[in-house]
Specification:
alpha/beta; seven-stranded mixed sheet; globular
């Protein structure tokens, strides 16, 4: 991608609701006509966290997929893939999570939801995110909790392993954890939506979870990279398979 992501020059939508309704339609079809009135579908708790900790300024969502909780009037939506399974990404711009074409210190906040576990080298990505974040800028990370997702039979990723991958400059596609992924998630039928996809395509398409965490692990990782933890919650009320950590660049 040659385009530079400049938050001050981005063309933001004026209204959130049309995109929200389109997201529901993609997920539920005509059922979206009544599901739009179900309050929890709007992820009010998660949206409230962003409003509380980043009430102003411009942000970027990394790996948006087909649904966002970002304040669209001030957030650039990016993705590394144009589609995720049967769903098209709603991103306005496409780039790799660890190669973001944005000026240093240009964003007031970064949002990432169920992305970091798909990256073979998360420290490299976090260093990139820190680079484009302003001092005292906030980072919102929502991640699947090991014990409440299809990763429950896998071992947690140790911090030392992440730094080893960083020092080795491990890059995609990486097959290191593929056997573990297939043996403990796909073959037991815990992720049936991935069962029909050729094994060697799981790393290539960004489907597999390279790493498995609980809340403590990600807090430890962020603190090791000199982020200040502002908030943590082991179970996100409007996405109960997930935990959330909010940190600040210091």
């Amino acid at each position: 991608m040659d385009k530079t992501l400049n938050p001050a020059q981005h063309n933001y939508p004026q209204f959130d609701y049309p995109l929200y309704l389109r997201q529901l339609y993609r997920r539920y079809g005509l059922k979206a006509l009544y599901k739009q009135f179900r309050f929890n579908n709007k992820r009010p708790f998660s949206r409230g966290l962003i409003q509380e900790y980043a009430p102003s300024g411009f942000g970027i969502e990394i790996g948006v997929g087909f649904f966002t909780i970002a304040p669209l009037k001030r957030t650039i939506l990016t993705d590394g893939f144009s589609s995720h399974g049967h769903d098209d990404s709603i991103a306005t711009d496409f780039c790799k999570a660890d190669e973001i074409p944005a000026p240093d210190s240009s964003f007031d906040f970064i949002l990432s939801e169920h992305v970091l576990e798909h990256l073979c080298n998360p420290i490299r990505a976090l260093e990139e995110w820190k680079k484009i974040l302003k001092t005292k800028g906030k980072i919102f990370i929502f991640l699947p909790h090991k014990d409440r997702t299809f990763d429950r039979n896998r071992q947690r990723t140790k911090l030392a392993h992440l730094f080893e991958d960083y020092q080795k400059q491990v890059s995609d596609p990486d097959f290191t954890h593929l056997d573990d992924w297939m043996a403990n998630v796909v073959k037991p039928g815990l992720a049936p939506h991935y069962a029909s996809i050729s094994e060697d395509k799981h790393p290539e398409f960004g489907l597999m979870h390279h790493h498995v965490w609980i809340t403590d692990d990600v807090c430890e990782l962020l603190q090791a990279l000199d982020f200040k933890i502002l908030y943590r919650l082991d179970c996100c009320p409007d996405r109960p398979d997930s935990f959330v950590v909010i940190a600040e660049k210091v």
